[in-house]
Design a protein that fits this description.
Radius of gyration: 43 Å
Strand content: 15-25%
Number of strands: 37
Structural class: alpha/beta
Bound molecules: adenosine-5'-diphosphate, zinc ion
Strand order of the largest sheet: 18-19-17-20-21-16-22
Helix content: 25-40%
Shape: elongated
Length: 981
Amino acid sequence: MYAEVCVNTPLSRQVGLSLGADREAGLGGRSFTYAVPERLAGRLERGHLVWVPFRSRRLQAVVLELTDTAPAFDTLEIEALVWAQPVLTPTQLQLARWVSAYYLAPLIEALRLMLPVRITQRGRTVFVRTREPAPSDLPRGQAELLAQIADGEGTWAEVSAGLRVTQKADLEPLIALRLVAREVAFASSPPRPKVDRRVRLLADAPAIARALPALGRTSIEADILLWLAGREDPALPLAELCAALGCTPSRARELSAHGCFALVPARTLVRRRASGGELPRLLEKLAGARKQADALAVLPEHLVDEAGFRAEHGVAGTIMNRLVAQGLAERAEEPARVSLTLDRAAVAGEVVRLRGAEKHRQVLEALQRHEGPPLIGCVYADTDATLDTLRDLQAAGLIALEAEVTWRDPLAGREFKPDQPPALTADQQRAWAAILDGIGRAEPGPATLLFGVTGSGKTEIYLRGIAEVLRCGRQAVVLVPEIALTPQTVQRFAARFPGKVTVWHSELSDGERFDVWRRVRSGHPAAQVVVGSRSALFLPFPELGLIVVDEEHESTYKQERTPRYHARRAAIELGRISAIPVLLGSATPALETYYAARSGAIQLLTLPQRVGSRGQRTGNGEPGTNEQPVPYSLFPTPYSLVPDLPGVEIVDMRQELRVGNRTMFSRSLAVALREVLARQQQAILYLNRRGSASFVLCRDCGHVEACPRCAVPLTYHGAGQVLICHHCNRRYPVPAICPKCESRRIRYFGTGTETVKQAFPSARTLRWDRDVTGAKGAHEAILSRFAEREADILIGTQMIAKGLDLPRVTLVGVIAADTGLFLPDFRAGERTFQLLTQVAGRAGRGDLAGRVIVQTYRPDHYAIVAASHHDFEGFYRQEMAFRREQGYPPIRRLARILVSDTQAAKAQAGAGRAAELLKGELARLALPETDLIGPAPCFFSQGRGLYRWQVIVRSPDPARLLSGLPMEIGWRVDVDPVDLL
Ligand code: ADP
Ligand code: ZN
Ligand code: ZN
């Protein structure tokens, strides 16, 4: 058996190799063939990630194909699996091949879009479930372990982490039965499954009180205190204590200095033997021995300390000896004794202190306070305990340390109000019928464009579609732009499908991404619907049933690094491969999409009115509520006829200038803002930062200098005082007077954010744009602050147009609608139209009536006029005329070669070489309707220390021309670019 693999090396695209090499090499592109060793035969599948020897290194590779036919050359053997299960599904392999061929990207780059995690190299032993069926009579421990390994291969620590009782003894029998295989994985572990460790209290209060004194390190002093406290006698012989505790008398003496117990040394006692009655007679007998008589007279009949007695009464030892010798006094030896000086009640606390077991006590106390077993981290936080402390407690049988594998859930901790689907409006019902039909069919036909104004109920249709595929046991993916910034979107999906929705975007941690990936791959119930950014398309869905691309016109769907795919295009391809419906939604479709819809390549469904507007009723079949059936119309109602969209007022800034208003606020906008502030409502001001201060504009007539050849605005370069065309690189002088109206007020143009604050010092403003901060949740925080009315005016850039729902916003002001219009990019008009339409759609979404004021120097520009009337059709007609005339997409397609270099001259020379090579190819292939634009410096000609030049290919099939181009270092190719700047 042999495997064809794609090796994961950054050098898989070699310099000098032509772009089409991957494509022309057929299956797998630059692939290599390896022999499959016996031990992997039968287990190896397409999509497996394996280790292969490669030019004296060991590299990872993706298995593309398996074959029994031996190649004509010698082959090396595959070394091992990186992962026990295939990392890529057959569908993914197919999609990767398409991405590679269509976008002229190395296959491995396309495959990398789908590999779950960054993979580095480190060897480790993993345990893997084989295909062997499990016998039914496995002992319980083995069965549990086997289930754990089947759930996910891993190291011993990983596979055993989720088990309550873990015994390595259970493993060997499983290996002997060939149910589990031991393998070396050379990759570092992918982010590990997360394990929650909890601490469970096993003992009750009396048991804890009993056990506590024994915890901690050994302390002979503590032992002594406990021993003494355990006796009735107040004082006990030291010898007995030493015998019981194995301690030396001298050590005990030392410790007694601490004051918790006292040590009475050994001593001699003495007493008078005669009774009181006999005493006078005896004293008489001793009349000759005066000192003896005196001593006997004061010596008590009970035992007293001899040394003390003698000192007190000045009795010499010889005198006492004589008394004893005559039998008048008696001596007794008393051994050394110990006694507790500490209060008995304080002993337990002192013992804990002496043993250093305060931590243990803290833990036990904390656990007694806590309801249920807390996370180990909480215990650490609440106490001074370390893992050793917990181990002691575990060894004493007081607590159990438990581990359970948990999912890192990006939506964890969020609550979603479950939501019931509303009855559809008549428009929605028409669209829904067509979509339902597509879902039911085996061959779903072309993708569908759901074209409806903001608030027309598109999302409701997506929700229905998802419900339908879930009902059939399949998954759905919903692509949304800027998902990290629009939590409201996720909420709608999560509310409709509680417990089934997860998210996928760049703000997830590696661990979260890994877990979402694993869940999706296993068809986990909690990952049936993925709402995500463009790369969610590349998750390993076992049975995808529906792809939704919301706001399909958004440029964030294009990836601006290799492979430079567009998610809308890739979604359509994935839909074709999987034979499932693809639903594109927008209020302002991309021209390409709408063009395809008009031509029939995409099915067009329209929702021309906002939900709840006049004439909209639910079409739920109840008598009297249904409208007359309306024949399905290919061409939607022009939005200008929609009564309830916010009114858009266009302000001519040239006129403002004429009456002497030189501020950035027209009189109209200034008045409106003041009113909003007075009424304590909210306003959004939209600033377009991109492209400011870059073009020459006549402030009297609005004329902008453009390249006569390329029909794109010229860019002002202050340094050389020249105007440059960023498409063809022609240079023009900066005019002193307007060529159209001869005004002298012609100058470069710009706006700033700070000016807003200066003009309305009393207003509370909040700024929101892409640059705000990269911190997780920062955008959400700004939005919720605005929603909670912590500010009156939200000032923002492009971001503001994105699906916001802010009911208290009654005014939207667009400061300078033109700024984006005069960028040297053929999509400038389309972008401006989209942005203005979407911005305008923001106002009046709540109960309050909304108002939109658009300031412009070009009130007559069709993009601005059409946007102000919500007139997509009108815009489309005029924009298409321009595209047709210029041969821009969607009439023909574009591709660009980007050449960057640290030296300006080299970047220019490189672009020149690329253009020459392409010219040669062009002549050789004689491709129809194909030409080159440039080379020219990019509009953003410098960045990150690199100079950028570009050559643009305009052709019905740019890949044909480009695939023969031998690439150099620093060259990039961008097929279907969305951005020519
Ligand atoms: P879009 O996605 O086109 O912007 P939405 O689906 O968000 O539109 O709908 C706009 C609003 O109308 C939402 O608040 C939604 O809950 C509501 N809505 C949508 N369809 C219906 C319906 N059939 N009946 C009642 N309300 C609806
Ligand atoms: Zn002019
Ligand atoms: Zn030009």
